Amino acid sequence: xxxxxxxxxxxxxxxxxxxxxxxxxxxxxxxxxxxxxxxxxxxxxxxxxxxxxxxxxxxxxxxxxxxxxxxxxxxxxxxxxxxxxxxxxxxxxxxxxxxxxxxxxxxxxxxxxxxxxxxxxxxxxxxxxxxxxxxxxxxxxxxxxxxxxxxxxxxxxxxxxxxxxxxxxxxxxxxxxxxxxxxxxxxxxxxxxxxxxxxxxxxxxxxxxxxxxxxxxxxxxxxxxxxxxxxxxxxxxxxxxxxxxxxxxxxxxxxxxxxxxxxxxxxxxxxxxxxxxxxxx
Length: 281
What we know:
The chain is mainly beta and 281 residues long. Helix content is 10%, strand content 46%. It has one helix at 5-32, and strands spanning 70-80, 83-91, 97-109, 115-125, 130-139, 145-157, 167-176, 184-192, 198-208, 214-225, 230-237, 247-253, 266-267, 271-272. The protein is elongated.
């Protein structure tokens, strides 16, 4: 029995359309579509990431993510002449992941919560490290509060170095200046007990009262510190600040995340200091 005219025409049209589409796909795949490669910025073939893994020689980088940085203390103190110093103590609770860099924004606010002074900066932190960040001499009028916000974190894992370098401060002292310029001073002896030569080491000093509240703080940079070298340093507070200093904290910060902080010096035998700088996987 023959099919009715209309359904028969529909079947013929469908078959014709199917072969036209199939022919178009074959022409596109064979002559028009660019071949899949390991350099086409696409995750194709059997790649496990964009142009990496599978048939591609490049190894896919691990997406490293750590727990958020914590702030155990944020404070500000007057620095004289309408300026204020800000302190934040940052703690990285991660056992393996560190931040090769993170950016932050400090904002002093008035009594209504309006921002009256802002400054941004960049820093880094090792796994299980607690460190101070100081921003000095922000100009503001009668601030009532301070906000410290981390904007972005570049997580990384250390390679070839698993702990803070052995750089310490000895012979710590603090006293008011009896004669000469300035109100008070802090002194110490920086000792680089690590096997590495550093281009820059930062020393931060925090002065506190008997209750542990911060009264004043300051920082200094010591340049070109060789392995096993000792260096004296001195920080001065030019004007008086309220309160009685009962506790002096001194923190040393030697950057091991960035290779340019290591001085490439020839050792006996013609070799450079053997250090594999930390990298992000």
